[in-house]
Amino acid sequence: MSGADAGERQSAAASTHPLAYVRRRHGWSYQDLARVIADNARILGVPMAARREKVWRWEHWGVVPEADSQRALARALGIPSRELELRPWPRWLPAHGGMPDGLPWTVEGSFTALTALLDNGASDPRGFPIADEQALLDAIADWDAAGAEGTTGAAGSAGSGGAAGAMGSMGSRALDKKAGSPSAAAGRGSPSAAAGRGSPSPAAGRGSASAAMAERWDEPVPGTRSGRVPRQANAAAAFRDDAVDKAVAAAVVDGPVIDWLEAGVLGLRKLDDRLGGAAVRHRVEADLRMVRGLLHRGQHERAHGARLLRVAADLAQLGGWAATDTGRLGAAQRHYLTGLRLAHSAGDRPLAVALWGGLALHAVIAGQPRDAVAAAEAGVRAAGGTPPAVRALAASRLSRAHAAVGADGASRRAVSEAERQLDLAERESGPSWLYWFDAAELAAQTGQSLLDLGHAHEARPLLEQALAMQDASYVRDRCLYSARAATARALTGDLEGARTLGREAARLSRHCGSPRIADTLDALKVRLDATR
User: Cβ atoms within 10 A of the Cβ of 81, count?
Assistant: First the structure.
């Protein structure tokens, strides 16, 4: 294989554009796809050259194909021409099977989204593309609309908004149409940086989440957009009975069963701390399938239905984090967006904050910093009225997102708010799944924000403080933060210290499966090799 061919294969495998997914699914190279389009264009009466370069530009430069090329490609894929008018490029491409459009924000819509995730989007290794910026903004607008439309019960309440009662009668499809209070999201891990253009304004009239931050954090903030969330025909018809394990579906769900399920998610989180996302992602998917079966036909009381939804949301959040850690960014986004629906239906606002934060982290890693700010701001709005530890998490994620767009002042203000809320958290416990967010984690996140902003001298002591304070059992995070501290040392001229920390990171990496760590270590090695 020539060097050019090898480079093309590598860039094709790395692309997250929906067109790249379509090509991989059909086994087409750039030239193959160009030929398919040209052949179908001729059938439509349009002469066209089969040039691979134009396909590459569509996929990597963001060039929009001319109308004739789109019509020809749609013909080849069996896509009705009206779809090209309803959904502009690239959204009409058949590449979003794991994230269905138009679902209501109800228990039934959440169940359908979970089924779609498990049937289409959970196990794909790296194939699904990442939704574009508009798709994320649409999800945020739907979230706000669902919050304005639904009830606003106490955050985390098992019976909030009638979700439990709806799930108690899932078998007869007597589904509640107004389930739960708004939720938001924030995931494990840490976003990184990018050049700055300031905060986007993803939904009309929403305003910046970082403005007057201290005054806004302590009040519950319902959704601000009043439009109706689109409805869809009965989602149960789309669910395939043969996808459910019959023994699980017939089970009776009681308190002890859900206690075991909840304890199991917490155990998986701690395994992820030690072993990395690759070690737990298949188990997370298996547990999600089991919970789906219990939701589908299990006989349970009102409160048990909400708890099952919460377990599903918790697993979806962990699944999103594990997918992010293993480089499966399309699958990660689908887990987080599905988890938001589940958390909303369960009435669990703190867990939704974790999910929005996960989307913010995901967007930074994917090189979409504007999306990171939009998701982090949604998390800030959802965090109103939640425990201080949850608000601290949301502020930390907002700081990382602002650092990603180069907004130095906004990032520092968010860090200050995170510190204030974490101080308050010492007097009020947060959710059990937030056990890992402490002073050491905040120091690490703050250090990474400063590193992303180009302030290596400020970042270095914080990253090293985080290492000194962090629990030794968090092997994956210790590895990652050792590598980042090594980068800070290298940037401040301490090359020998950087190599020492780099060797420690490499040693720890042998004990956890995380492609994200491998990428970080590779970048560190390149930096250190350049100084020899």
Answer: 11
Exposure string of 230-266, with b = 16+ CB inside 10 Å and e = fewer, is eebeebeeebeeeebeeebbebebeeebbeebbebbe
Q: How far apart are CA 188 and CA 201, in angstroms?
A: 25
| CA 264 – CA 54 distance, rounded (Å) | 49
Mean pLDDT across the stretch 505-525?
86
Q: Is the torsion defined by CA of 108, 113, 114, 115 positive or negative?
A: positive
Cis peptide before 90 (omega within 30 of 0): yes
pLDDT the model gives residue 124: 56
Write out pLDDT tens, residues 375-401: 999 999 999 999 999 999 999 999 999
pLDDT digits (tens, 9 = 90+) for 44-90: 999 999 999 999 999 888 899 999 999 999 999 888 888 888 878 88
Angstrom distance (rounded) from CA 139 to CA 175:
22
| Residue 395, SS3 per DSSP | helix
Residues contacting residue 297 through CB under 8 Å, at least 6 positions apart: 170, 171, 244, 249, 250
If residue 422 lies in a helix (H) or strand (E), which one and from where to where? helix 408-425
The alpha carbon dihedral of 178, 179, 182, 185 has a sign of negative
Share of residues in the chain with pLDDT > 90 (%): 47
Q: Is 232 left (phi over 0), alpha (psi -120 to 50) or beta?
A: beta
State pLDDT tens for residues 315-346: 999 999 999 988 888 889 989 999 999 999 99
DSSP H helical segments within 430-514, as ranges?
A: 439-452, 456-469, 475-491, 495-509
Does the pLDDT of residue 274 top 70, yes or no?
yes
How many CB atoms within 10 Å of residue 368?
Answer: 23
Going by C-beta distance under 8 Å and a sequence separation of 6 or more, which residues neighbour residue 447? Answer: 459, 460, 461, 462, 463, 465, 466, 484, 485, 488
363 close to 347: Cβ distance less than 8 angstroms: no
User: How long, in residues, is the chain?
Assistant: 532
N- to C-terminal Cα distance for the chain?
Answer: 32
Q: Is the pLDDT of residue 42 over 50?
A: yes
Amino acid residing at 422: L
Residue 1 has what DSSP assignment?
Answer: -
pLDDT at 374 over 80: yes
- Burial grade of 79 (CB within 10 A; 0-12, 13-18, 19 or more): middle
